[in-house]
Specification:
heterodimer, A: mainly alpha, MetI-like fold, 2 domains, disordered N terminus, B: mainly alpha, 13 helices
């Protein structure tokens, strides 16, 4: 190796090291807020206010903060409410939208075309436009508020467009009609054909949609805040808001509460990270 | 699908396959959308069953509601600033991560983390940073910026909203830019290299034009999401100090559910929708026209 190429190699390494350093610094800045909350969740109020950047409390870790947060947010019940609403919504959403998408792909009926176009067009409507009429209809007239199933019902209504759209693209591009025809010739009905042949093949797109929708349902605040006015139905974002309002000067408890509400999502993310990232990219590009 | 189906067979098939999806969709989106337009012509106050027809009064009120227009102006400013910062940062981070830095996936996953958490919780976390951590730095770094809580002054409170929005969404847009960078064919880059293009020339003249589709998606997503911001606004500044950082989405909520001016709120929501639709469709249209083939 000549002197000059060795120098160029050294220069290149230096440049790579520089890039890596920048990446690490930016990475730390991005994750700093989470680290801050985690560290302070084990400190007393006094030491949070005096030295928020100090790593540990001189009085030792304050596990009492977590005990208080769990108790006051009624964490098990709140967590259960969130889990129920998100779980039921997502499972029903996947079944209902994939069925509709399949019919929309396999037929050229006018009703299907109109339905699908309406779904596509609705995707640019901001929530603020339907928020007031939703409450006028389902709250003031039908008195459907404070029921978990109302929340599921609305999650489905807001979710079907995107989910149907994504399944539509996938079925069109990846599921050959020949497969279904074979099953039909063997005497299977449409429903049986769909659930035994088509549905299992939709796994890749359904897991993408599931990830996107779980995240958006889990973090949703505005819609649940209008539907659930009674504490017993509160989901995590609602509970954290009330908790924050009631104990806004009790920083230790607040930090523990925030950690508790962030932790489940982060834990799942650590396990399913590759799928989540893949799903988000696939969803956004569509 | 069988060719010669009777109408009854078709109807049954439609109801059993598309029926549930269409039922939810119509009940939650279509009917409220139409009913919402009807509400703008009434004086419904949220309680009475009685709704009087008031013609265009609500639209006149909405057009004269100077608070609405000032929130819309502020939301536009917030969105434009955020979109610029989000996309510049995301683009250069994506460039950095795809230029051979080790552990690309690790960094990518880390930068994305803020997007897993809802705006409400993110706002609370940053509220503590801006109101507690920032002033505590003043003793070590005595510059005016750290003298007091950012949330106590209208312009720094506005800046803090932009900071959090940028922090969150740049990690999201980064993913799309990375897939854009990775999608550029090696042949094109090789050819540029053979022709003697340096790194900067390749970036500006080859990569940038080929990544216009990524830009279109990212600008659309970051713009529409910034315009509709509500949760973050509520938890970080709650519109304060003195309603100086109240965004349009929050103003609409206040009009309807706090002032009980449902018709006016709904009319403003429709105007808000039109503004978002016009801006985002124009931006997508211009972007699509500039797309080039490799």
């Amino acid at each position: 190796m000549s002197e000059s190429s060795r120098a160029a190699g050294g220069h290149k390494n230096l440049k790579q090291a520089g890039k890596l350093t920048i990446a690490i610094i930016v990475f730390c800045i991005y994750l700093f807020p989470f680290a801050l909350v985690l560290v302070n969740s084990l400190k007393t109020k006094v030491s949070i206010v005096k030295a928020p950047l100090m790593l540990a409390d001189p009085k030792g870790p304050q596990w009492i903060n977590y005990q208080n947060a769990i108790e006051k947010m009624n964490f098990p019940r709140t967590f259960g409410n969130s889990l129920f609403v998100v779980g039921v919504s997502v499972i029903l959403l996947l079944i209902v939208s994939s069925m509709a998408a399949w019919l929309f792909v396999r037929t050229d009926w006018k009703a299907c075309k109109i339905s699908f176009s309406a779904m596509l067009a609705s995707m640019i409507v901001p929530f603020q436009v339907v928020m007031i009429p939703l409450i006028a209809i389902y709250g003031a007239q039908l008195h459907w508020l404070n029921h978990r199933m109302t929340m599921v019902f609305m999650n489905l209504g807001f979710g079907v467009s995107m989910c149907t759209f994504m399944c539509h693209g996938f079925i069109k591009g990846n599921i050959p009609v020949a497969l279904e025809e074979a099953a039909r010739i063997d005497g299977a009905g449409y429903h049986r054909t769909f659930f035994t042949i088509v549905f299992p093949l939709l796994k890749p797109i359904l897991s993408t949609v599931a990830i996107l929708e779980i995240l958006s349902y889990w973090n949703d605040f505005l819609l649940p805040s209008m539907i659930f006015t009674r504490k017993e139905f509160y989901t995590l974002p609602l509970a954290i808001r009330t908790f924050y309002g009631e104990f806004s000067s009790d920083y230790g408890n607040i930090m523990a509460g925030l950690t508790l509400s962030v932790a489940p999502v982060i834990l799942v993310y650590l396990i399913l990270q590759k799928h989540v990232i893949g799903g988000i990219v696939a969803g956004a590009v569509k | 699908m069988k060719q010669n189906m009777t109408f009854k067979e078709k109807l049954l098939l439609f109801i059993s396959f598309a029926g549930p999806a269409m039922l939810f969709f119509c009940c939650v989106v279509i009917i409220p959308l139409v009913y919402g337009i009807y509400l703008t012509f009434t004086d419904w106050n949220g309680l009475a069953d009685l709704k009087n027809f008031v013609g265009l009064t609500n639209y006149v009120t909405a057009f004269q509601d100077s608070t609405f227009w000032s929130t819309l102006l502020m939301t536009t400013g917030f969105s434009l600033l955020s979109v610029v910062f989000i996309n510049i940062i995301a683009f250069f981070l994506a460039y950095l991560l795809t230029s051979g830095v080790k552990g690309q996936n690790f960094f990518r996953a880390g930068f994305f983390t803020p997007n897993l958490i809802g705006g409400l919780i993110l706002g609370y976390i940053w509220q503590i940073i801006f109101s507690r951590v920032v002033p505590s730095l003043y003793s070590a770094i005595p510059i005016p910026l750290f003298q007091k809580s950012w949330l106590s002054n209208p312009s720094t409170a506005f800046a803090s909203l932009v900071v959090v929005q940028t922090w969150q969404l740049s990690g999201y847009m980064l993913l799309i830019y990375i897939s854009g960078f990775v999608g550029i064919s090696e042949d094109v880059l090789e050819a540029a290299n053979v022709d003697g293009a340096n790194e900067r020339q390749t970036l500006w003249n080859i990569r940038l034009p080929l990544m216009i589709p990524s830009f279109v998606i990212c600008l659309f997503l970051s713009l529409t999401r910034s315009f509709k911001v509500y949760d973050l606004n509520l938890s970080l500044t709650a519109g304060g100090p003195y309603n100086s950082t109240k965004m349009t989405a929050m103003h609409i909520y206040t009009q309807a559910f706090e002032n009980h001016l449902y018709g006016v709120g709904q009319a403003e929501a429709l105007i808000f929708f039109l503004v978002i639709a016009v801006i985002s469709l124009t931006q997508t249209y211009i972007g699509k026209k500039r797309e080039v083939e490799a």
